[in-house]
Amino acid sequence: MTELFDQGLIATLRAARSLTILTGAGMSAESGIPTFRDSLTGLWNTFEIEQVASLAGYLQQPQAVWGWYHTHRQQILAVQPNLGHVALAQLEQHISSVTLITQNIDALHQRAGSSNVIELHGTIDTIRCSAGDHGISAWPDQPDLPLCAVCGAPLRPDVVWFGERLDLAKIQAAEFASQTCDVFLAIGTSGLVAPAATFPMTARAHRARLIDLNLEDTPLSRHARHRLRGPAAQLLPALVA
Ligand code: BJW
């Protein structure tokens, strides 16, 4: 680890026995995937959020939203994990217990080698029926809107939109990791979306040290013991070195 960081932070990480990490869209920004809320490039400035990120929006315009996600998936498949993703995967060699909770659907952590990843908001690799529990299938190659073989409803990305329940087992695993870690590292998330934003607070309530890595302050920042300001793909490799 390097002189770039204060000794308290280095000591905190060196002493960590159980580390829980929460990542958001900022983690993948330097891989070339735009964040949601960035004022200049955020996805939600080019597409109404209700149309992209809710079931009601999807059902109003399934073809348009499907097309948007299909293009988004092509973009994800074309990019690579960045040095920040790689650095987080390397942390597993230094710390005996590492749990990585991600809000991202891009699987870049797994591609970088992280082994214990909770995909809180689902994945862009699979699709499911928008009307019922009719199974999961792989993302199709063709861009046309696929229909459920059981009921004929439009199939949808296997992700979690606003107003939708998250997978209970994933919430429980994330809760447990937050309650039992001694260090919690939040990276590149605006800290606005629940329940993800509650996990750093849970960790802090259980006396974990909270590290906040972001380009700017967020609602999480004032609770953090250490605040790192800068791009994740630059800071994380230096921190892990
Ligand atoms: C960098 C960087 C660099 C940039 N380096 N940093 C009040 C009213 C209505 C609803 C609610 C309410 N209070 C709570 C809710 C619930 C709602 C919610 O939280 N709403 C808030 C907006 C208020 N939550 C839900 O609805 C959740 N479900 C739920 O609660 O269910 C309960 C329920 C119970 C019973 C029955 C039914 C339901 C579900 C939330 C699902 C969120 N889904 C999305 C889309 C996923 C699919 C997809 O990816 O396409 O998840 S929305 C979007 O937000 C996406 C993200 O994962 C998520 C978080 O965004 P994130 O990652 O923080 O990104 P950004 O862009 O916001 O921030 C990027 C950050 O990175 C910034 O801070 C930058 O500075 C930083 N940065 N470059 C370091 N290089």
UniProtKB/TrEMBL annotation:
InterPro entries: DHS-like_NAD/FAD-binding_dom, NAD-dep_sirtuin_deacylases, Sirtuin, Sirtuin_cat_small_dom_sf, Sirtuin_class_III, Ssirtuin_cat_dom. Residues 1-241 form the Deacetylase sirtuin-type domain. PROSITE patterns: SIRTUIN (PS50305). The active site is at H121 (proton acceptor). Its cofactor is Zn(2+). It is found in: Cytoplasm. Pfam families: SIR2 (PF02146). One of its GO terms (molecular function) is NAD+ binding. One of its GO terms (cellular component) is cytoplasm. Binds 1 zinc ion per subunit. NAD-dependent protein deacetylase which modulates the activities of several proteins which are inactive in their acetylated form. Belongs to the sirtuin family. Class III subfamily. PANTHER family: NAD-DEPENDENT PROTEIN DEACYLASE, NAD-DEPENDENT PROTEIN DEACYLASE SIRTUIN-5, MITOCHONDRIAL-RELATED. This is NAD-dependent protein deacylase. The lineage of its organism: Bacteria, Bacillati, Chloroflexota, Chloroflexia, Herpetosiphonales.
